Amino acid sequence: MTAVARPDTTSTPDGRKVRRTVAHSIASAHLGRFGLLALLVLVIIIFSVLKPTEFATWANFTQTADQQASVMIGGLAVMLPLLTAEIDLSVAANISFANIVLSVLTTNDHMSVGLGVVLAIVASTAVGLGNGLIVDRLQVTSFVATLGTGTLLGGLGLAVAHSMDILTVPSSVTTIVRTKVWGLPLSVVYAVVAMAIVGMVLRYLPVGRKIRAVGANPRAAVLTGIRPSLYRVASFTVGGALAGIAGVVITGQLGSATAAGSADTLLLPIFAAVFLGSTAFTPGRPNVLGLFVAALFLAFVSSGLVMMGAPAWESPLINGAALITAVALSSWALRLRARRFRAEQLKQIDRDDQDQVGEAAAAV
Amino acid sequence: MQFTTADSSKRTDSDPDAVLAIDAMQLRKVYGPTTALAGANLQVRAGEIHGLLGENGAGKSTLVRILAGADQPDGGTLRFFGEDASGGPADRRKDGLAFIHQDLGLFEGFSVTENIALSCVFPRRGGLIDHKATVERARQVTARIGFDLDVTKVVGELPLADQTLVAVCRALAEGARLIVLDEPTAYLEARQVRKLFALLTRLRDDGVACVLITHRIEDVLHICDRVTVLRDGRDVARREASELSEADLIRMITGRSDSPSPAARSDSASALPSRLGVEELSGPSFGPVSFTLQAGEILGLCGLEDAGQFAVGRAVVGDLPTTGGQLTFRGRPYRPRNVRDALNAGLGFVPASRAADGLASSLTVTDNILMDAGSSWWRPLRRRTDDASCRRLMDTFRVSPAHPEREVSTFSGGNQQKILLAKWLGAGRQLVVLNQPTAGVDIGAKTDIHDEIRQDCRHNETAALVISTDFQEIVDLCDRALVMRRGRIVGELKRDELHTDLLAEMAYGGTV
Predict the structure, then answer these.
(1) Residues 312..331 of B with a Cβ closer than 8 Å to A: which?
(2) Of A111, B42, B86, B484, which shows the fewest CB atoms inside 10 Å?
(3) How far is A338 from chain B (nearest CA, A)?
(4) How far apart are CA A323 and CA A270, in angstroms?
């Protein structure tokens, strides 16, 4: 008589197999939590050894961080709606839009930097609010809604710029982004501050719990007195504001604006960082720390490979591959977890059986 | 002489020579956090009609899926006619094992002949289908069980009983030695049932093994030779049907003794203040209904699935618009526009479906229990105290393991239900509306949950409105019960009158 159990599941008499599966899963659970961080360290070490004079320099680190500042802030903009289970595909277009608005206001209209920045962020915030209302009130799925607004923004940007690229913005605009504090460009400081604030709010304020609840089960949220509409619209709106900030950072870094959209190519790097980041720390859920580590990881791999002589087109390859790998990893982790609980469950049945046998023996 | 132990009922096969049509031993299956089979045995002889019984959730359907090869077991052994089972549904068919589900899997637009021929092969002559031979073979098969039928008729136009028999004939044409029928009588009227059973008896006398999965006890007593009863994923009894009475079967299926001992209830509640007053309340699918609920009282509101009791509950918490009538809460008029209003007033609402409406299963226990952590936006969460208070609640409700930082999806169904109740019963509510508070949980968890509800009502003067389709639960838990039928309250039973038979009779429309 042979067991019908499949080889990958656990059969009762073979307790050893159960243990191995459980140990294996627990190990992989920790690997899932801190795997990305370990990978980042590994990548830094490898390239530092291979290219000590180029890679392992403060200049390279600050440059890479500077380059990823807009990805990090843009990632936050995507993460908020994502936590409520909505996707924002208009984020890159919104960043470009803020870039154009700020450049036009300060260059063509000679507006002061402060006012220009505020208006650019307000414009992007309005776009986010629009996204939220379209999704929530008009009941358009966020995928379609933001695909639409993204395209629409491209046209709007061209109109605002009168289809003319702005080649140099006033130096006052670049100063607020390129100035270095303690050796770090302000762009990086903005990114870190934004991540710290969003991270703290999500973790330590009731808002974070409510946003997660809306994303995980909106009906349960309603029956707990939470208004999903409010959090859905608010997430898109704050996301829009963050996209505006990313737009300001980009403007300072580039010192220019392309009427057709300077930041449109950021869409994939942003999503790659968010999704790769959601495999770490709280696997399966987007999180700020994961975003930070993932953004650095992707940038270091990319810049390291370029130093090793890889052609410039490797960057999109890495981002695309990272996006797919990240999502595949997440679903793999979920399956693994399901298997672990199956094993636990079977062990519990065994214990119950033994209890019953014991009781029966006692009864005899 | 055989050595007998307390569980000798699990192995009673006296004739060791007879090859069993089905020999399933210690089958196990878990789906995510729920245990569907926890070591189930089933032995079916050739040439018998074997009844398989059990409550919803006892593991019947999982067992059938495993027998049919649609699911692989996580443990145990399975043999058909002495050979180890292997492969999927297609292999089962080749081995002469037929499974007839409620969805019969017939092509309704095709004739009986075509249906039978499609599953085997069309007889051919000169490479082309031999229609005459096809019809002839269909006739032979129906004649074998004495089924008088015009085989050229279109299946969709036949009565349901006949369709079931066509499915049986098709199985016979494939050479079935074992036929498993899943709830074949569920939608049949008495005359059709008799016809089906008469033909099944012929089949048995022909040496075919039949398994009849059913929840109709009269079917079992009428036609089955032997019976296996499943409860909580295990077989709890295997008996000759002839030695069983209806009461025996009910007892074995539910696992309860004849007279459920009603646990101690709160003392006379007449002096306590009113919590909820419902006056002539009506909505799209119910009403008008009127009743009152006092502090510390557990009031049952029951009926069949569509009697309207769930709509009343939703209306009370503002989740469903009403078309008339009034509500009072703690003596004051109360008109919730949405669930938020009701919760702010001091109500709690436990929905019937914990997966769809109750819990965010991808979030942690703490995130669920304290989902709406106060109305303040800016008061920081005190994660440590939150976790500690959730752990205390989990201890009180006997949720194991009591790890508030674990995701809800990692707990078993019973534990998830306890978490859902802990969320509301632990929140100091004045009135809780509990929909199916113990749906799909095992007996042990059921008792725990009932205890907690009673505790909360007695000590905190919480009033509980228990809305259910499970009459036994109403009897076990409630101080008083209202029975609904077609949107209206048709009867009220006091504590000492509560009895499942009476509740069922009122719910189905009998006179009291």
Answers:
(1) 319
(2) B86
(3) 6
(4) 10
Within a domain: A85? yes
Cβ-defined contact of A223 to B376 (cutoff 8 Å): no
Indicate whether A4 pLDDT > 70: no
What is the rounded average pLDDT of the residues A265-289? 90
Q: Tell me how many domains chain A contains.
A: 1
Nearest to B302 by CA among B453, B496, B499: B499
Confidence (pLDDT) at A146:
96
Question: Do A346 and B370 make contact, defined as CB atoms within 8 angstroms?
Answer: no
Segment A133-187, tens digit of pLDDT: 999 999 999 999 999 999 999 999 999 999 989 998 999 999 999 999 888 999 9
Q: Would you list the domain boundaries of chain B?
A: 274-374+382-508
pLDDT tens digits, B278-319: 999 999 888 799 999 999 999 999 987 778 899 999 999 999
Stated pTM of the model:
0.71
Across the strands, what pairs with B467?
B301, B435
pLDDT digits (tens, 9 = 90+) for B1-39: 344 333 433 334 445 456 888 999 999 988 766 778 888
Tell me the CA distances in angstroms from A39 to A35, A61, B305, B314, one per residue in order.
Answer: 6, 17, 55, 51
The reply to whether A363 touches chain B by the CB within 8 Å rule is yes
Residue A226's CB is within 10 A of a number of other CB atoms, namely: 23
Interatomic CA distance for residues A349 and B41, integer angstroms:
15
H/E stretch holding A184 reads: strand A184-185
* Domain around A104: 35-352
Best CA proximity match to B37, nearest among A241, A312, A345: A345
Evaluate whether residue A323 is within a structural domain: yes
CATH code, A200: 1.10.3470
In this prediction, residue A70 carries a pLDDT of 95
Beginning with the edge strand found earlier in the chain, give each strand of the sheet holding B178-182 in spatial order.
Answer: B97-100, B178-182, B209-213, B49-54, B226-231, B234-240
Q: Are A73 and A92 in contact (CB under 8 A)?
A: no
Residue B324 in contact with residue B281, Cβ under 8 Å? yes
User: Of 3.40.50.150, 3.40.720.10, 1.20.120.290, 3.40.50.300, which CATH number belongs to B274-374+382-508?
Assistant: 3.40.50.300
Lowest mean pLDDT among B46-50, B79-83, B372-376, B486-490: B372-376
Binning pLDDT at 50, 70 and 90, where does residue B425 land?
confident
B323 contacts: CB under 8 Å, gap ≥ 6? B282, B283, B284, B287
Is residue A280, in this structure, part of any structural domain at all? yes
3-state class (DSSP) for residue B387: helix
Mean pLDDT rounded to a whole number for chain B:
83
Sheet containing B298-303: which strands, arranged edge to edge?
A: B347-350, B431-435, B463-468, B298-303, B480-485, B488-494
Contacts of B214 (CB under 8 A, 6+ apart): B51, B52, B53, B183, B184, B185, B186, B220
Which of A11, A82, A204, A209 is the best residue to mutate to test the B interface, defined by the most B CB atoms within 10 Å of its own CB? A209
Top-confidence residue, B85 or A134: A134
* Chain A hits for B372, Cβ within 8 Å: 206, 210, 224-226
**CB-based contact A206 B78, cutoff 8 Å:** no
Among partner residues A3, A203, A220, which is closest to B75 by beta-carbon distance?
A3
- Is residue A25 domain-resident? no
